[in-house]
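Flagellin
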Amino acid sequence: MSSILTNTSAMVALQTLKSINADLSKTQNEISTGKAVATAKDNASVWAISKVMEADVKGFQAISESLSLGQSTVAVAREATETITDLLTQIKGKIVAAQEDNVDRGKIQTDIAALRDQINSVVNAAQFNGLNLLQGTEDVNVLASLDRASDGTVTASSITVQRHDLTTSAGTYGSGTSLSANATVSAATVANTANTVTLTVDADADVSADSFQVTIGGSTVSFAAGDITGDQDAAATAISAAINALGLEGITASVSGADVTISSTRAFEAVSVSALKNGAGAGMTLSASEIAERAENVTFSNSANVNEGDGYRVTIGSSAYTYVAGKNETFEDVARGLKAAIDAAGLDGITTQVSRDNNGAWQLKVDNDGASLAFAVTGAAGGQASGGLFGLGGIDVTSSSGAAAALSNIETLIDKAIDASAAFGSYQGRIETQASFVGKLTDSLKAGIGSLVDADMEEASARLQALQVQQQLGIQSLSIANQAPQSILSLFR
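Tokens:
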């Protein structure tokens, strides 16, 4: 049946041509935009995923800039601390030279002052974009990553860079909680009193038939049988005289009856003592096997913690010497800081030393070779920390005692500068590693986005040509279908 009102063939040909034109338009859009999924209507789920990933890429690009800024800041700090280490090493060389008596210590001190000023200049200049990691104690956070959880939650993570204060500031003693219980002194005064042991020649000793041997700090006096005649008092007198004849520094002996009092004024050095009669232990009695060192000490707790701002103050005579701890410091740092403060004062006859006792507690030892002075220690929280190079300004080698004190103090300062250099080097290496990872991660995300939404141009080109052919055929098919009703006219001729 043919109809001039309804041309079914033309309708089919028209719908086919519309479908071809739609596919052709889509393919042309893919080619022109380069994307298979350009809008949400192309593929809603893939488009949504791609947009989330694109947002992450933008975030990681900002993180890369943050890491570059942080890397530059830490690099400046590392270079500065390495320079400071070199300058402190030069100062140590000057201090070592000042140990000699036949040098011009005044000129050496001038050189040390110049190097110290240069260190201060380096510390002040070690900033990048206004941020100086060698001043203050607050940590600096460098934005390092965006972490997306499985539920879509995004959190930022950072690399924490700890500052290392290498200023020479003295800090401020606080008025907070008392910390005096964390430090105790061995005596209320520090004096030049000698420490002693007593050697007693026993009453049953046969002086003329016995041999005697006394060893003090590695030096020995001995008497063969028959060298001493008389009673126990005579033996004690002979032993005392022999000890004094050794000429040991700080060691003297005195006698009272059968007792020999052996005295030592050696600072920071215990002296061992032993005594034998006829090669055995019997016949002579010692009150102790060691003469204690001459020094009073401040012993710090080996269980308490040290917090930033904790200050400790040692009083010697009428003057007080203070050190305020910085972040992550220990009682070793406190003891060495107090030592530097005391040494800088240049007190006549006062020398200091830092060591550990038999229980592992840190001690500040103070020796006095002059008149007795009051000795006390207090502590308080809530202060402002001293600089990491506290004590550098107090180094004075113009005297032999100052040169000796400076030698141990400069080692402490060098160690702090080395620790800071090593820490900044580690931070810089970590930031560089993270920056490299973020760069690779960003490239991977971009590649992933491309695989989701980018058009396959080879396929799109082939499809375009096929659709263009189909379009031409569809047009011809529609033309043929539209001409079919005209054949009905022949029935009316």
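The domain at 180-190+295-386 is CATH 2.60.40 (Immunoglobulin-like).
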